[in-house]
From TrEMBL:
PANTHER family the UniProt entry points to: 1-PHOSPHOFRUCTOKINASE-RELATED, ATP-DEPENDENT 6-PHOSPHOFRUCTOKINASE ISOZYME 2
EC code(s) of this entry: 2.7.1.144
Stated family: Belongs to the carbohydrate kinase pfkB family. Belongs to the carbohydrate kinase PfkB family. LacC subfamily.
SUPFAM superfamilies in alphabetical order: Ribokinase-like
Pathway: Carbohydrate metabolism; D-tagatose 6-phosphate degradation; D-glyceraldehyde 3-phosphate and glycerone phosphate from D-tagatose 6-phosphate: step 1/2
Protein's organism: Candidatus Carbonibacillus altaicus
Short name of any one Pfam family annotated for the protein: PfkB
Highest taxon in the source lineage: Bacteria
Molecular-function GO term, any one: ATP binding
Catalytic activity: D-tagatofuranose 6-phosphate + ATP = D-tagatofuranose 1,6-bisphosphate + ADP + H(+)
Annotated Carbohydrate kinase PfkB domain residues: 19-304
Name recorded for this polypeptide: Tagatose-6-phosphate kinase
Amino acid sequence: MRKRSVLVVSPNPAIDMTYQLRELNLGLLNRAHDVYVNVGGKGINVAKFLASSDVDVHVLGWIGEKNASTIDDFIKSIGLRHAFIKVPGYTRMNIKIVESRPEQRITEINAPGFSVSGKQVDAFIGLIRERLRASDFLVLSGSLPVGAPPDFYRLLIEEAKAHGVKTVLDADGEALKLGIHALPNVIKPNLQEALRLLDKNVSLASLEGETLTRKACQLTLELLQKGVDIVALSMGKDGLCLGFKDQPNLLRLTPPSVQTVSTVGSGDTVVGALIYGLLHGLDLYGLGRFITAAGTATTLVQGSEVATVEQAEQLVDTIFTEWIPVEMLSI
């Protein structure tokens, strides 16, 4: 029996430097008590989670030739198969500042990174075509580098469909708006991304409690009605709303209260958990609990590392679930 295989596109990877300190004082000298350096970017974080399972993972992307060895060495160290096209310049180096006082807060500074040419885009599409035939899922995750066409993800979803490969899209802005036109099988927007995608003029500050739940579920239903098979809409610390197309109920999922170490990579872990759960035949209820547990588990690890499948499984029974009938949601 062929091992289940996932192709992860990480077009704009990063070297993440995470500084942990008690409190950030702007304009003054600050001293960190811990520093973590990891290779990340949304696609690579997805691959990290899947690498802890029985799924075969293959990462594709561009990397800057000037610090390519850092990415190569890390990917090899965690046993991921990969193929990167080297381009002039540096892979971006991002800074994440995690404060523990007065409350857990993260400040992120993301660098723009390298740019790609039309020839490099064509070479990348060719690389994907070569590997699609042996894949069960294609994951498209994260921002696009300068020079990549805004409909890059749409083109790749269409390629995957031509090969009978299911797709997962986790992006924002134009990449998400154009990509969804090709009807990916699964999307995982957060609340803000969903509001932008659907052109909703709603203040996030006005959403809490039952109002938050209702709005998240309405957005989830509206995205499903566009033709996407599965929508997992993240509400951050408040959990998720998960829906399958043509199902009579959505599932509202609430994680337990935990002592958060870092939220970096939590959403990417949810994407990895979605794929793992679907490959293992989980239903709506089982999938919802597992992906919420996975995202929560990653908030308990340091830096931009992500949780493992085993760590996620240990939290599944702590997830609170609530069925939301679709007929009760007016759009």
